[in-house]
């Protein structure tokens, strides 16, 4: 009976050991990279914030980026590292954009009213111990000035 009571008292403590706040991952930049053929390559800069009292080690990352409610780019990296406790780091992940995705976005920009920014959705997985962790983020990407100008005024 004493063993049963001890187990009941220890269970809540064990459960709290594994609980962590989710990491926060945001897109903070997009830079062009050399591509091949009809493929466009971009470097997506992600800010990873760790709101926990212990560092988070990672081993690889995979992501999907939707822009304007349509699939846009995918990428992977085998990069390893650690996000310090209550700290942050910026990772640069190369992504591929198909010609079809670029064409779809260009047509969408021409058909829609002028925009200052495009909505995005980011989904992915940060590899690590015990299978890693999934993440998602939404926000807006600011368009370069050249793309903001109405047709006929450039």
UniProtKB/TrEMBL annotation:
<dbReference type="Pfam" id="PF03168">
    <property type="entry name" value="LEA_2"/>
</dbReference>
<protein>
    <submittedName>
        <fullName>Water stress and hypersensitive response domain-containing protein</fullName>
    </submittedName>
</protein>
<dbReference type="InterPro" id="IPR004864">
    <property type="entry name" value="LEA_2"/>
</dbReference>
<feature type="domain" description="Water stress and hypersensitive response">
    <location>
        <begin position="25"/>
        <end position="144"/>
    </location>
</feature>
<dbReference type="InterPro" id="IPR013990">
    <property type="entry name" value="WHy-dom"/>
</dbReference>
<dbReference type="GO" id="GO:0009269">
    <property type="term" value="P:response to desiccation"/>
</dbReference>
């Amino acid at each position: 009976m004493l063993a049963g009571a001890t187990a009941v008292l220890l269970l809540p403590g064990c459960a709290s050991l594994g609980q962590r706040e989710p990491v926060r991952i945001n897109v903070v930049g997009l830079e062009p990279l050399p591509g091949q053929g009809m493929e466009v390559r971009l470097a997506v800069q992600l800010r990873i914030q760790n709101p926990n009292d212990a560092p988070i080690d990672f081993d690889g990352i995979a992501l999907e980026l939707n822009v304007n409610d349509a699939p846009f780019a995918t990428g992977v990296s085998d990069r390893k590292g650690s996000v310090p406790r209550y700290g942050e780091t910026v990772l640069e992940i190369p992504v591929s954009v198909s010609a079809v995705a670029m064409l779809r976005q260009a047509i969408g920009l021409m058909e829609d009213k002028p925009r200052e920014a495009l909505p995005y959705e980011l989904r992915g997985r940060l590899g690590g111990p015990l299978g890693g962790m999934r993440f998602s983020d939404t926000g807006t990407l600011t368009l370069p000035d050249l793309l903001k100008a109405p047709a006929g005024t450039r």
